[in-house]
Amino acid sequence: MADELLKSTNLPHDPERATLEGKNKFLGFWFFLGGETVLFASLFGTYLALKNSHLDGVPASELYGLGLVFIMTMILLTSSLTSVYAIYHMKNNDHKKMMLWLGITVLLGFSFLGLEVYEFYHYVNDYGHGFTTSAFSSAFYALVGFHGAHVAFGLGWFILLMVRNRKRGINLYNAPKFYIASLYWHFIDVVWVFIFTVVYLMGVVG
Amino acid sequence: MSATANKKAGFGSVLWDYLTTVDHKKIAILYLFGGFFFFILGGLEAMLVRIQLIQPDNNFVSAQFYNELMTMHGTTMIFLAAMPLLFALMNIAMPLQIGARDVAFPFVNALGFWLFLVGGIVVNISWFTGGAPDAGWTAYTPLSIFSESHGLDYYSIGLQIAGFGTLMGGINFLVTVITMRTPGMTMMRMPLFSWTTFIASVLILFAFPALTVGLFLLTFDRLFGANFFDPSMGGNVIIWEHLFWIFGHPEVYILILPAFGVFSEVISTFSKKRLFGYSSMVFATVLIAFLGFMVWAHHMFTVGLGPIANSIFAIATMAIAVPTGIKIFNWLFTMWGGTLRFNSPMLFALGFIPSFTIGGMTGVMLGAAAADFQYHDTYFVVAHFHYVIVGGTVFGIFAGLIYWWPKMFGKVLNETMNHWFFWLFFIGFHLTFFLQHFLGLMGMPRRYWVFLEGQGLDLFNLISTIGAFFMAAGTILFIYNMIWTALKAPQAPADPWDGRTLEWAIASPPPFYNFKQLPLVRGLDPLWIEKTEGNGKMQPAEPLGDVHMPNNSFIPFVMSVGLGIAGIGIIYQVDNPMWWIVAAIGFIIFFGSMAVRSLKDDLGYHIHKEDFEKEGDGSNG
Amino acid sequence: MKGLTSKFKAVGALMTLALILSGCGEEFLSALRPQGQGASDILSLMILSIAVMMFVFVVVMVIYVFVILKFRQKKGQEDFIPEQVEGSHTLETLWTVVPIFLILILAVPTVQYTFSLVDTSPQVSAEGEEDQIWINVTGKQYWWHFEYDGMDVTTSQELYIPTDRRVFLSLHSEDVIHSFWVPTLQGKIDVNPTGNRNEIWIDAEKEGVYWGKCAEFCGPSHSLMDFKVVAVSPGEFEQWVKDMRNIDPEATPESEVAAAGQEVFANNCMSCHANGTSPNKIGPNVSNFGDRERIAGVLEYNKENLIEWIETKGKDMKPGNLMTSAAYDLSDEELEQVAEYLMSLSPSEITPENANDNEYIESDLSDLFVDEEKDESSQEKSEEESEEDSEEDSDSN
Q1: Where are the transmembrane segments (chain C) (predicted)?
Q2: Does A190 fall in a domain?
Q3: Which among A135, A137, B486, B508 is least buried, having the fewest CB atoms inside 10 angstroms?
Q4: DSSP state of B390
């Protein structure tokens, strides 16, 4: 029976939910994302409460550059799409193409992260907007930084999965793992949409 | 594996077995001992607090030490005693009640326990390293960010770790209830304890992340120079209060709902009647949980949120009395017309009803926002929440422990000693806390290190302290009973209480695979149905076949220890950057073992049907 | 007729309840023995809620006791199997609907009082709007500071108010969260270091010294952060204000020892402790120290305690207090002198004794507000300044 689990032939259409373990993982991860939603909601609340407490520092409206953030948003949205392709190929039991699209997702993720690091560097050096500058800056880095940490964790997760499964095909044992990793990636993406709106757009507008 | 598991084993192999176990029944035992250890610790702290308050102007402990004691009493009792003891009950009973062979994520279950234990130990290490946390269990900012010792760093990091464990446990139970029920066990046939476990897990899932964020912000403020709560840097101290109570109020229901579940089981069993109004009980549970998320600001009536907000939260708070009242009357009418047996779990249930009714009444009184201006932060509140948490949760825990003790250890606790224990604890409890209602109204605020002479507060404080000694005596008796039972008591039968639900259909203690064949459930109280309409045994829902079991794993323990080490490193890096090395080692252990877990295939193993056949028939399971 | 008697019975029960409760605690401290309208209102709400809850409790207990007595398992009945009742829609509806009504009974006055207790708009009578006495309250670890807005009066630890009139408080903390609570007069309100200043009113119906407490945990000496509210008749209050605003901090005390103490005080204590109306509030204002009821809010008022306090900087008398960081080092003689000086500070004839002497002097306090209109220009200016101050405050917060 154990062999059954690791075979890559004759996979059902939804390999991620074909076993009880897979179903459990699928469901459990959804619940986990529910908890994560509360986590980010709390951070958003904190940010909104403190966003005008910039003291002598630069206020939000003068700090953010929408151009860069827009590019970051596009990159992350695209990476969400490419992870959908990866899962699509997983369901078709096409290991090679899944790996390809996952690879692209990871690359996009890294470029997002790189831009975010550049953005933070820019704020700290050109605006004196460090983590300890004011309550506003702490709240900003806490919210956006938490998201960035999630992105980094997601990238590590994808890479680990790809390395582990590079030589073997899709099976009932690893399909749920790929699936929930991509679920996580979508979640991060959705959170970013909110960050883009609540932090950056609303920040620039007023 | 199946053959060796039952053999007598040496201490080393038992220890290794428990360090690596993923069996929900063994994890329940771990939770029990972990939780009980902290319960004793919190109890000792409470005794010192009460001794300090035995007379006016007492100087038994210093002001600083008193604050550490009362902070740690609250923190320990809520996070490190009540929660894990409830988790012990959930772990032992819920999977059996729904006819599952284990929980959905056995590995995560073990991880949850070890995280809790490491977190609890981290918080308590602070006693030996220059002072425990001293800002109250609520750790209100900015007092908590001004506190000079490392105590509050231990608090925030330790609770963070324990909180992760709880969150994982919650998700685990949720999925278990949804996917692991045996054939025929529909949601509306689930025993009420499984229901309350499910609902409490929902609360955990949505409440704990708020605490996670609060603790992160506190840690950042204290250790990394952030300014969330620092008034001079534009911070806002009220944010902490909101985050804490958005977590903290649902936490109250996380504590009380499983206790309600225990009482529903116990009252029904010992009245020989099915639960009166089962569906309204389920509905009331869901409603309490739902409302529980909308009342957090009733802890903040005096903060100055304004009369509009206060009125809304006041009415929402009072509304919770309605589903709670439904439950009380349903229990009373479950007993009505039954034949009551006063075994010790039932005694605790009967002690619970008046005690919790008083706690609920004072809850409604506190909900009246205007009147809360007087009650708030006085001994009235102290009395109220002890009536709810001791009179509700702790009574529930004891009822549940005694009730399910045979399922955990295969022995029934000594009934005579348990009766003595109940009466000592019950009388002591009311002696300690009833008069505190009046102390509060007579002008004694809570968290007072001393009260002055000539304020008319002396007598009631003295009586309260005397009561505390009764409770301590009862608890010591219970510990003695545990040891006595382990050494002297005979093996318990499968069904010592004439039970009604699935856990009583299998041996005490159950075999590690629980059910040889999954049982077929024909209605609410499935065993009772078979007792009255069948042959007294559960009918199998599947032919005898191979059973899939998870492998034991040492990784949860290693991961948790790694996180603990990382936490200590983080606490001390403010003093000396070299501690970053310790933190890094901790994180490498943590993430490394996490990576090992995901890189190594863990497919579990099978108990083959031939092995079952060799073991013979036994009781159905 | 029957309805009427039952009504009487209900009222009688409530009265009995009120009577029992009023036996609880001391007159100067207990929330159950209200001496002001705020506390009276709250007590009436408490009694209503207790009555409603007692009704529920009695119903529960009657069923409970009956069930336990009636349905216990009897000998020889071990095999009896009771009827397995599923539930009862009638009963379940009953105990859902009745509590809803009970809660509505409670909710109405609750909302009403929730608004009225923090309503700080001026009282309106037939003669028009009453002039408001506003006092800025500052909470600090572990003492209280009071500034009478527009009256040029500053004091610490003991708050003088006129009876029979609402006094309005605006509260703010300079360190951690405290909570201002005078149980006999009014419910408590938090004193926050950030966000809006909280506002509340208090009033006393008769003269007396009422004990106040800090009700929000604020550090090691949280339990020692007591203060007093001294309620005197309006005429006496007027006198007190006039005396307090005319303090001459430079005036030499009569006794020689005290005069020497003044010198010591000026050299060692003045940087934190003000005498008179100076805005310095690093430490408590000592203007009327000679009239205090207690030393440091909690200690018996005598010279030994005062000397010990100054000598040890209150290290063990009020653990964690911030005076311990003061740099002074006084000789025994100097201690004696400072103590003498402080105990001689009694700028007003009105002291806590006047709160207990049953002498009632009428006044509409209009004198205290006349000044305001007279030098309106200067007043306005200072108000503007203080507004600016508070704006700065809120900015930096």
Answers
A1: 41-67, 94-115
A2: yes
A3: B486
A4: I
Is C312 part of the contact surface with chain B (CB cutoff 8 Å)?
no
Q: Which domains does chain B have, with CATH numbers?
A: 10-542 (1.20.210.10), 555-621 (no CATH)
Q: Which of A39, A160, A165 to mutate to test the interface with B (most CBs of B within 10 A)?
A: A39
Report CA-CA distances (Å) from B230 to C145, C151, C220, C397.
22, 33, 20, 9
- Chains adjacent to B (≥3 CB pairs closer than 8 angstroms): A, C
Pairwise CB contact (< 8 Å): B224 & A131: yes
- Which chain B residues are Cβ-neighbours of C30 within 8 angstroms? 441-443, 456
Give which of B419, B405, B415 is closest to B89, Cα–Cα: B405
Contacts of B342 in chain C (CB under 8 A): 72
User: Could you count the other beta carbons within 10 Å of the beta carbon of residue B342?
Assistant: 16
> In 3D, which of C87, A136, C30 has the Cα closest to residue B228?
A136
ipTM: 0.94
Contact A109, A158 (CB under 8 A): yes
Q: How many domains does chain A have?
A: 1
Does A149 lie at the interface with B, CB-CB under 8 angstroms?
A: no
From chain A residues 36-75, the ones with a CB under 8 A of any chain B CB are 36, 38-39, 42-43, 45-46, 49-50, 53-55
Judge residue B473's burial from the number of C-beta atoms within 10 Å of its C-beta, 0-12 exposed, 13-18 middle, 19 or more buried: middle
pLDDT digits (tens, 9 = 90+) for C183-237: 999 999 999 998 779 999 999 999 999 999 999 999 999 999 999 999 999 999 9
pLDDT at C4 over 90: no
Residue A138 has its nearest CB partner, among B210, B213, B226, at B226
Amino acid at C331: S
Split at pLDDT 50, 70, 90, the class of C387 is very low
Q: Are A140 and A54 in contact (CB under 8 A)?
A: no
- Binary contact (A35, B598; C-beta < 8 A): no
Residue A142 lies in a domain: yes
CA distance B528 to B501: 7
Q: CB contact, 8 Å: C20 with chain B? A: no
For B463-492, write each residue's pLDDT tens digit. 999 999 999 999 999 999 999 999 999 999
The CATH number of residue A78's host domain is: 1.20.120.80
d(CA A125, CA C199): 43
The residue ranges of every structural domain in chain C are: 1-65+96-111
Residue of chain C with shortest Cα separation from B346:
C68
Whether residue A1 lies inside any domain: the answer is no
For residue A61, being part of any structural domain is answered with no
The C residues from 220 to 249 touching B (CB cutoff 8 Å) are 220-224, 226
Residue C40 pLDDT > 70: yes
**Could you read off the pLDDT of C272-290 as tens digits, one per residue?**
999 888 888 899 999 999 9
Our CA-based measurement puts residue A53 at a distance from the nearest CA of chain B, in whole angstroms, of 5
Dihedrals φ, ψ of C114, to 5°? -60, -35
Backbone angles phi, psi at C72, to 5 degrees: -65, 150
